[in-house]
Amino acid sequence: EKSLSKSLRRLNNIRNQLEAAVKDNSKEPVRVLITGASGNIGYSLSFMIAQGRMFGPNQPVILHLFDLPNNIGGLKGVSMELTDGAFKLLRGIVYSTDPAVAFKDVDYAIMCGARPRTQGMERKDLLSVNAKIFEEQGKYFDTYAKKTVKVCVVGNPANTNALILAKNAPSINFKNFTALTRLDHNRAVGQLAEKLKIDNDKIKNVTIWGNHSTTQHPDVDYCVVEDDNNTYPVKSMIADDKWIQNEFIKTVQQRGAAIIAARKISSVASTATAICDHMRDWINGTPEGQWVSMGVMSKGEYGAPTDVVFSFPVTCKNGEWKIVDNLKLSEFSKEKLAITGKELLEERTMALNK
User: Fold this and answer.
1) Is 185 tagged catalytic?
2) 20 to 30 A Cα–Cα from 236, which one of 5, 81, 143, 311?
3) How do beta strands 203-204 and 177-179 pair?
């Protein structure tokens, strides 16, 4: 009787697994736009998405690859390689330099394409050039994309580019436009884990405040280590405010430049990984009691300027983000938030008064 009962339970588990598999396989594919798709980040990201790194192992995808007309050969090459990968989740590839084709009915969008700063270019000139690009792309979203589209801006200056997009797509909720600061968040986690000699996944609730630039404020005031069902404040484990306020913060702020100095090329794989993390948590939700960092539209929370895209600690549920509230900021953090907020206001002025 016990043996029969055990066999029935096993059969019931198998049936449930088969039903779940059938349900997963019946999912409609989602359409994901990558701009600047022939570039290094777009190239790496497209394979991660096709492998299920962004949406999970059971969500089919159709990739929309977009770039400038002179990069059509690169788009074709990426498409060919994706086809050669024979990914089970990849149900289609649309590659085009025509926004009416590439932006059509997309569910999600990753904006990797932006004009890089070249030698001799003033910061205000870079902001002005990218403002024009993202004005146009905002209008493409307004015209062609689904009104529920969720957008992550990667191309720098990411925060201000996200603001420009949102202002030029009035038919889409401003909450659907975000900027990537998860890379900075992940960098902070990595530095802390290395310092404490523990696994990365034990570090919880790091916060990146402000701009994705060297003015950002990596904050560990509420950061904890969770280990064997116990929780320990990171600051008490490190017990070195000088290291936190100097070496740690500067390392995170300047990590991108350090990678360029070492590799002679900007961050690629770590950026693509952070994009997947950003979108996965936004869509599927953050674990209970934990938050992540995202650049989102500010309404003045924590004294940040209004009408800028500012990185805050956020929780996500049912595809929506929410800024964590009621955190008490130290005087040190308040000073840092004022600096990064001022920079974002300057960027907005330079971009909008082009």
Assistant:
1) no
2) 311
3) unpaired
CB 227 within 8 A of CB 198: yes
CB 148 within 8 A of CB 137: no
Which residue type, as a one-letter code, is found at position 326? N
How does DSSP classify residue 67?
-
Q: Are 237 and 225 in contact (CB under 8 A)?
A: yes
Residues 6 or more apart whose CB falls under 8 angstroms from that of 142 comprise 168, 169, 170, 171, 172
Nearest-angstrom CA–CA distance, 56 and 79: 21
pLDDT digits (tens, 9 = 90+) for 127-158: 888 899 999 999 999 999 999 999 999 998 99
pLDDT tens digit sequence for 270-296: 999 999 999 999 999 999 999 999 999
How do beta strands 61-66 and 30-35 pair? parallel
Estimate to the nearest angstrom the gap between the alpha carbon of 206 and the chain centroid: 15
Q: Which residues contact 346 (CB under 8 A, 6 or more apart)?
A: none
Which residue has tokens 């598999």?
Answer: 21
Calculate the alpha carbon distances from 349 to 7, 131, 175, 288 in Å. 69, 11, 21, 38
Type of residue at 203: I
User: What span, in angstroms and rounded, lies between the C-alpha atoms of 214 and 61?
Assistant: 35
> Which residue has 């509230």 as its token pair?
325
Q: Is 114 in contact with 130 (CB distance < 8 Å)?
A: yes
Q: Which of 64, 185, 212, 217 is catalytic?
A: 212
Closest CA to 184 of 259, 242, 236: 259
pLDDT band at 227 (very low <50, low <70, confident <90, very high): confident
Residues whose CB falls within 8 Å of the CB of residue 133, separated by 6 or more in sequence, listed in order: 113, 114, 115
Decide if 111 contacts 165 (C-beta within 8 A).
yes
- 206, 311 in Cβ contact below 8 A? no
Confidence check: pLDDT of 3 > 80: no
Q: Give the span between the Cα atoms of 36 and 112, in whole angstroms.
A: 5
What DSSP assignment string belongs to 71-115? GHHHHHHHHHHHHHHT-TTEEEEEEES-HHHHTTT-SEEEE---P
Q: Read off the DSSP letter of residue 247.
A: I
Structure tokens at 227: 């280990």
pTM for the full predicted model: 0.91
